Records
---
Amino acid sequence: MTDTKQPYVSDNCETYTDLEDSHEKIKNPELASILKKVNRSRNYRKPPIDNKQLDIFEPPPLTDISTKDEISLMDIAVFGLGRKPRFEPIEYNLKDAHIMVQGGTNCGMATIFDYDIFLYMISYLTNEMNRIKKEIKKGNDDYLPPRSIKPSVAELLNYCRRDHGGENYKLLEKSLERLSTTKISITKVNSKNRRNGMFSLIGDYNITTQKETGRISDITISIPEWVYDGIVRIENPTVLTLNPDYFLLDKGAHRFLHRLARKAAGKTEATYSLEKIYERSGTTRVFRRWKSDIKSTIAALKENPLPEYSISWETKGKKVNIKMIYTGNKK
DNA sequence: GCGGTATTGTGCATTAGTAT
DNA sequence: ATACTAATGCACAATACCGC
């Protein structure tokens, strides 16, 4: 099972890494060009060796909350897209709302990778609630889900399909801090009145570490009220399932595009202008810099497409549109 | 000014390997 | 199986540069 080091007969390399490194020396030009491409772009992480999401019976399906106050949270980035936490706030001026995302002054804003923890929380809660609803249909009363989750760290990392490297344990603490302090404020204006609200991605959290060893023994994350109410107290929660391969997407921009496609295209297709995607990505880059970035980002998808969606770059004169087409199982 | 590419720094992510 | 270490890799963004 763990013999991942299968030698490649063709070129005397021990491992896949050897093969990648030696692509210059490879005689077969076709193979060499493929390997060069692999070297250049890595859209997907390799899944951890033990490629199981959870060792429990069934992992909860990956779900994300899609709207809040009739505002779609999936087609804007309520987090930074980079690995480095960002400190500048993001502002969105949408048609019917003004949205402001701001991180903590010390730790910065949550990143799209920190958001994985949020997804774990949503998935857990949705799954739990679906189970309870089934029980109620059968006529059995049941307790509502708890208002906080207590995952073991390994369980959390497994679900997010990450490696169990110790680094992840250290970073978890920072991730939680960012998630908890990132505030999203929505100001909605309709014809009659103006509503303003502020919420964060996760509530309070506790991390218990053992004194002698410094090991994390326990984490508790409280579920913020808007999430709990949105899933438990509303009859038809606005949640969408995602493909678990989402966790393997290595580029923040790819994750953003996948979320956008999932929401906008669904099981059909959708087209956005490049300008609109630029605005909704929350990037700090000037447009023409971002444009060349996103162009190569989308070009990389030719080799390794997004799970279930194809993204294409279409030019109409000077205008650029991004077309997203569902390629998954149309059932 | 506007388009594009090339280079570089930073902080997180990943990997192999190790300890319990 | 879970938790940790050290070394390396990577994306994003800032910056410089070039040609128009």
---
Amino acid sequence: MFRQTRSEVETALEAALEALDLPSEDLGIEEPPEDVAAVLASSAAFRLAGEVGAPPPAVAADIAAAIDPGDLTYVDSVEQRGPYVNFLPSDAYFGETLAAAQAEDYGQLPDRDTSVVVEHTSANPTGPVHVGRARNPIIGDALARVLDYAGYDVDRHYYVNDAGRQMAVFTWAYETFDEDDLPEPERDSPEYEMVRYYRKGNSFLEEADADRVEDAESEIRAILQGLEAGDEDAYERVGEVVDTVLGGMSETLGRLPAEFDEFVKETRFMRNDATEDLVDRLKALDQAVYEEDAWQLDLPGFEKNLVFLRSDGTSLYTTRDLAHHEWKFDTYDRAVTVLGEDHKLQADQLDTTLDLLGHDTDQLSQVFYSWVNLPEGGMSTREGTGIDLDDLLDESIDRAREEVESRIDTRSRDDDLDETDVERIAHQVGIGAVRYDIVSKQPTKGITFEWDRALDFEAQSAPYVQYVHARCCGIRSEAGHAVEEGKEREPDSTAGDLDAAPLATDAERDLLREIARFPAVIERAADEHRPHVVATYTRTLAEQFNTFYRECPVLDADPDTKRARLALVDAARHAIANALDAIGVAAPRSM
RNA sequence: GGGCGUGUGGCCUAGUGGACGAGGGCGAGGGGUUCCUAACCCCUCGAUCGCGGGUUCGAAUCCCGCCACGCCCGCCA
């Protein structure tokens, strides 16, 4: 009801200002701090004081007096407090929130009839996914989920750089070196086996004699030219390496879970002549220049030219990515790309060039994140430095399992967790902790990876929030409504004759108010492409629930209160479960 | 050198013009379970919001300068 209330307040405030003959373009609507009973407030009186010639509190009082709460559904009263106009929630606000949150899909906003493609990860298929890159799939997947909740029609894409020099080097190395000369793979998985060739190839190119390196380089060149010429054999050779490595990487990403609707290969835009067609149009632009045998763009606002066709007539990564984005414009209403901060300049150039080509680049946006580094420096697949995402997830699951096992004897709840439960919880908590740790921070902030900090299971972590969900399920279960893992989607018997009136304590009201905010949180996270605000919300909601849990017994309450509190617990459960789902963290039914 | 980003108690982090007299967490110290799961809760300790100017009735938030750190400035991807 928060969103509805907000628009109701907007309308009322606008009318009041007009009635007072005051400008109404700045309503100054904001959310008051926790210790204020209002749901919304306006600080417009600050700015209007000069115009009116009266101090802000007097103006606020006038505004408050000009609004008749009797005309409003979700506002009970309008009060002036200092320079603020406060809007206090009505019984209908609480009642309808309680009712709305009984829906299993609470927080899911209406369909917007707008398609959006979220491209994320898109790491070159050179080897195991390492932690330095792990922010990309986690932020990308969370963003896709949030957009989904916000009513967009979402596709998730992984753009595969399968036509670059790295893949040519990889293909040459794979065909050249013998497995007997390679170290044992770190894991029994294709990308771990394959990366050994890649590393061997790269060190050969750095260390071998000049003439041997030149021989290798000519083979690598031949592969690249084969791709450019549309040579089927070249595609097949590179494709084998790419598909094998990518298959292994997908398994790892799937553990997060981060899944994709499509793996879009850049060679696709070479084979279907889209790149060639694009190059023709680029050459025709006013900004196109032909210098030193290469076609370039003199982009306005950029220091250096952007080369889009090499002197040997081959295309570059950026050229193909332009064709790729033209395809996105054709296929989707909007496109979001999650990129490392090192791609900022390239993204700006891409944007500017697409604009020159006549595309509406307002439909295109990027989310940038900075790398996760180790205390001793960066991570590199080629050099084999860094921590594999698989190892991080395994370690986290192991620690979570130890945690569950160490608690099992002192648990006060008598639900007898069996082996399957322990394993389930270890996975939900272990992986959830890693995801939450990453998704809850602003992407632009740098992260230095430290095991103990990343895998803290206490306050301000996924387990803290997950525990609240488990508590909700525990109460439900005690009340005779068991929640099935995975599909906790049974109709609620208390729905229908809901009454929020018995929920009279501060703890209950505050919890309900927090639940009411959830759809607006989703909306904001989607609009601003900032999934981390959902993570922040889960924590606030969990804190509010814990206050309620401490102060308000549910099962032992009198029948009317019990019914209302059970409904409140369900409302909280849906908000928590869906908020966690929106950031891709599992909601365990027991812990 | 130029561009972009980041800078909030010892450490991590929220807040990005208005009730901030800055909210959490970790840490340190103290307390809480005959009661729906203590991965919890309560209390105490601890911050000139990097530094210096400016704009504003009002600045952690906007502008300018400086400092520190990160990233980028390829006919690589």
